[in-house]
Amino acid sequence: MGLGTVVDVRTGEAAAEGEEHDSEIKPIYRLANEEDLRSAAENERLAREAYRFCRECIRRLSLDMKLVDVEVHFDRGKMIFYFTAPGRIDFRELIKDLVREYRTRIELRQIGVRHETQMLGAIGNCGQLCCCRRFLRKFAPVTIKMAKEQNLFLNPTKISGICGRLLCCLSYEQQGYEEFHKQCPKIGKKYQTTLGQVKVLRSNFFKKTLTLWVEGLEEKEIPLEQWQQISKKGQPQAEERQEPAPRPEPAPAEPEAEEADVAPAEEGETPREAGAGESRRGKPRKRRRSRRPARGPRPDES
Asked: How many CB atoms lie within 10 A of CB 27?
């Protein structure tokens, strides 16, 4: 059992969109009364006291860990202490002190730096409350490749959040950048177009434009739609110049007629069989050279 707060009521289409998340919403038993509200306030006070007591124990035991928050269940049957640490911690003595003080089930749960920011909350670089605290429930994977594709300066202070990890908002526009780069040519390569030979210098996602360097002229910025037109007209010309004319293939040689196994017989004659010096196809056989050494003259011979 726990105390919950209604934050939104969905009707119509909004309710249909939220059907996938119905499994995360716990069933509602009854409306909270004054006694329930009083118990929740006492639990919050107990959590603050447990937080201070646990920090004193960590300092006394010299443990390399940082206490983040303390959660007390509604019925006080369990207390959860959230902490961060660079590695594994031997907190057996700490658990003994906490059990001796509060006489209930104690759980020490190690979390990451992103979950720490999600629980505490902070102001991001945009000046608003962090997304992980406001609406994010699951962290999407964020890579440095996303920052490169979005042409951002790879400065850790600019692309990192309060937690020290890459900004979660880098994944919001990633799909749009991927679709844009599929339509754009590769930057730094030369292409043959109706304007002549051009080199792609850079692209602008927000303007949907390309910056080209035309031979004999200065840089020129064109919209992406115009690039698709000039590249379609100029691409066949480039292919004709680059690809040499195909050479005519030689006519296949006619296969030689195989000779009959038996020589044709004239009128009144029987067919002649292949002799000892001829093969079955009428061709003379090659004599094999003997590999035996030549014999010397016999002793009788003089």
From this structure: 4
List, for residues 92-139, the tens digit of each pLDDT value. Answer: 999 999 999 999 999 999 998 889 988 888 888 888 899 988 888 888
Distance in angstroms (rounded) separating the CA atoms of residues 108 and 81: 5
Higher pLDDT, 87 or 301: 87
User: Do 90 and 99 contact (CB within 8 A), yes or no?
Assistant: no
Instruction: Let me know: does 94 contact 64? Beta carbons within 8 Å.
Output: no
CA 295, distance to chain mean position in Å, is: 80
In sequence order, the β-bridge partners of residue 67 are 83
Residues 217, 219, 221, 222, Cα dihedral to 10° = 40
Nearest-Å Rg of the Cα atoms of the chain is 43
What's the sign of the alpha-carbon dihedral 194, 196, 201, 207?
negative
**What pTM does this model have?**
0.59
Nearest to 132 by CA among 103, 166, 157: 166
Report the C-alpha gap between 251 and 246 in whole angstroms: 15
Query: Any bridge partners for residue 200, and if so which?
Result: 212
Q: How far apart are CA 296 and CA 302, in angstroms?
A: 12
Strand partners, 203: 210
pLDDT at 258 over 60: no
- DSSP state, 105? E
Average pLDDT over residues 266-283: 46
The answer to whether residues 144 and 154 touch, using CB atoms and an 8 Å cutoff, is yes
Task: Tell me, letter by letter, the H, E, C secondary structure of 230-256.
Answer: HHHHHHHHHHHHHCCCCCCCCCCCCCC
Tokens found for residue 179: 């679709």
Report the amino acid identity of residue 190: K
Cβ atoms within 10 Å of 175's Cβ, excluding its own: 9
